[in-house]
Amino acid sequence: MSKPSIAEAGEQLGRTLLKSVKEMQTGNAARKTKVKPNEVAAARLNTGLTQAEFAKALQISARTLQEWEQGRRQPSGAAKALLQIASRHPDIITEEFELTKQG
Questions:
Q1: 65 neighbors 37 (Cβ within 8 angstroms)
Q2: How many Cα atoms are found within 13 Å in the side-chain-facing hemisphere of 11?
Q3: CA 93, 51, 82 angle in degrees (round to 5)?
Q4: What's this model's pTM, rounded to 2 decimal places?
């Protein structure tokens, strides 16, 4: 088996890239990655609030919320309980956010 020349390798790479672009344009991507949000992100998504809004409603920093959502840190016991409430009753959190906006 002989090694392809640089020109042949370049042509093959070009064909592969062109094929990939055509697949993307038609929506036929070869691979789709779906990321399931963790419990913290899921609780926030249920409320429809942004990270900044959700953090304000919980009276925590947006950075802390980001750390929790990205799995770099875990919420404490009290915060876990609050997040469970947020997950089960998102309307309470959105109501709290509306109240913090007013005052």
A1: no
A2: 5
A3: 40
A4: 0.64
